[in-house]
Amino acid sequence: MTEQQLYDLAPALELMAFGLVLALGPLCWVWWRNRGTGSGRRLQALCVLTLFLTFDLVLFGAFTRLTDSGLGCPDWPGCYGTASPIAAHAQISEAQAAMPTGPVTHGKAWVEMIHRYLATTVGVLIIAMTVMSWKQAGADRRAGRHISFSGAANPWWPTLALVWVCIQGAFGALTVTMKLFPAIVTLHLLGGTGLLALLAIPASGLSLQQAGLSPALIARGLRIALWLCLALLVLQVSLGGWVSTNYAVLACTTFPGCQGSWWPTMNFAEALQIWRPLGMLKDGSHISFEALTAIHYTHRLAAYVVVLALAGLWWALRHAPALAKQRRLLGFFAVLQVLTGLSNVVLDWPLVAAVLHTGGAAALVTIVVWSLAVTRANAVAAPDPEMARRPA
């Protein structure tokens, strides 16, 4: 079997053209659904649709990883130097005959390439969103309308998302060419979550703008709580990605204990070796089971803190009527995370639960960012009732 070079740019133009064709569907749908409306309404609809499709991409990326399809095509950006597994049928068949369970099989090649097609489509939509954002800003300026570059409708947000998605594509390439290097795969997962957060900002800001609303004023302490929960969620997503990319989910198969103990034997020194190949340590030896246990248990312990923080935030949001919808969604996805997390442990890592666990984490980050984007801290202190009753 011949060795396939890791980077083969021959099919790059075909892939970009394919992504453009796929993106025409959502773009035409936005234009059709919003015909007769202004350009601002079309831009807002495109931002919301792109956010939704990016969330789908994150879910499919989790499916790709969890089905061990990340190396379904051993090169990048195509598959054996072609734009689809159909053209690479002979090479895939040869690889599958040599190793029937993979990493290269026809099924896994299709999963991997569909993921790349979807990523290219999202990239095209973000390009369109960026161009439209700057055109809208220019039209507002020429019409003499006030443009605020400090809010969520700032055209620099789509621009940052465009830069981000290019970096995300580079990490996608490294995921393949560095053979599922755990640190790279974890960063790729974080990058997808970060892209959702970036897209949530203009989507929410433009939705407020189209509704003729201003950001709601909430207590400064509640804004701090939102930022704190966002930081905890990013940390937990990082730890969860580290568990998944090191295949450490099944290091503990019981709850609330692990391996019949509240504090199982763990090797944190090995667990915290970040820059190393999959399943190996820096010195070339295999990672120990105790290290995998430490990776799993660290994520579990942090989950207790995150769940308590989210529960406290959910309770505090009852005082913010403007965030009632976000509060309901926060509660739903927090419960979903607990249930899917437990399912992964006690039901031997079922695929549906594992994919939903990734999606739930991404949704929680998006909801918190959405809440931050549509609110501002109320800097004015509430008047003292006693002072209000005193004569002037």
TrEMBL record:
This is Heme A synthase. One of its GO terms (molecular function) is oxidoreductase activity. Pathway: Porphyrin-containing compound metabolism. It is an enzyme of class 1 (oxidoreductase). It is found in: Membrane. Its EC number is 1.3.-.-. Its main location: membrane. It comes from Comamonas brasiliensis. The chain crosses the membrane at residues 12-31, 43-63, 114-134, 155-174, 180-203, 224-243, 301-317, 329-347, 353-373. Pfam families: COX15-CtaA. It comes from the Bacteria.
